[in-house]
Design goal:
The protein has one domain: LmbE-like (Rossmann fold, 3-Layer(aba) Sandwich). It is built from six helices and seven strands, in the order E-H-E-H-E-H-E-H-E-E-H-H-E. The protein has a seven-stranded mixed sheet, sandwiched between helices. Helix 2 links the parallel strand 2 and strand 3. The two termini are 31 Å apart.
Length: 227
């Protein structure tokens, strides 16, 4: 059903980490979905209703094919058996080629738990003779995007050129005004996101880039996309 399923601990994490890549995939004809694991609340300036409206606006900006929320508890996200089964069921239903998850090193416990959960659910999704809904499915790869709370250097396995979709990313992040208030003192979160995009873009020789890594070897069928 989907080419790519982006799994986000909270609404806005998918946009922070890879909105430019999502927009690029959509422009290239790939089907992309986002699964938010929690509603992200409580936060200092947000509410469940506000976050839902902001997420809907960002979803429209991205032109996603599919988006749902798994309804797991914010701030208490755990890679337990019940959550694993729920996520494996979504993977079997959406049948993505690629999964995208947060980087596994982070200061935010929800982000770390999310990546552990994705890894375990990917394995469970292929199981036969089980009580999971749907038919077995095993995504080809898990790629990890950078939406981290640690102020450390993120060493990428590859950088996606998002020069043509940077403005889409900027508009998506602006949708989340409760989380990234425009009147915040500089440097704002959006300032830091743009600085990172310019940094990784500079490493790749383009204006803006998004960084990804992968624990498994990346297979190339041709070298046409390398430069």
């Amino acid at each position: 059903m989907l080419d790519a399923l982006v799994i986000a601990p909270h609404p806005d994490d998918a946009e922070l980490g890879m909105a430019g890549t999502i927009a690029l995939l959509r422009a290239q004809g790939h089907s992309v979905g986002v699964l938010d694991l929690t509603d992200g609340e409580p936060t200092p300036r947000g509410s469940v209703e506000t976050r839902a409206l902001e997420t809907a606006a960002a979803t429209r900006e991205l032109g996603l094919d599919w988006r749902e929320n798994l309804g797991l508890p914010n701030r208490r996200l755990r890679a337990n058996l019940a959550a694993r089964a729920a996520l494996a069921g979504v993977i079997r239903r959406t049948r993505p080629r690629w999964l995208f998850a947060p980087h596994w090193v982070d200061a935010h416990p929800d982000h770390i738990a999310a990546t552990r959960l994705v890894t375990a659910a990917r394995f469970w999704a292929k199981l036969t003779k089980c009580d999971l809904p749907g038919e077995p499915w095993h995504p080809q790869r898990i790629y990890h995007y950078a939406a981290v709370h640690l102020k450390v250097h993120f060493r990428p396995a590859f950088v996606v050129d998002i020069s043509s979709t940077w403005e889409v990313k900027r508009r998506c992040l602006s949708c989340y005004a409760s989380q990234f208030p425009p009147d915040a003192p500089p440097p704002t979160v959006l300032d830091r996101v743009e600085a990172a995009a310019r940094y990784f873009g500079a490493l790749a020789g383009v204006s803006h880039g998004e960084a990804f890594t992968c624990r498994e070897p990346i297979c190339l069928r041709n070298l046409g996309g390398l430069f």
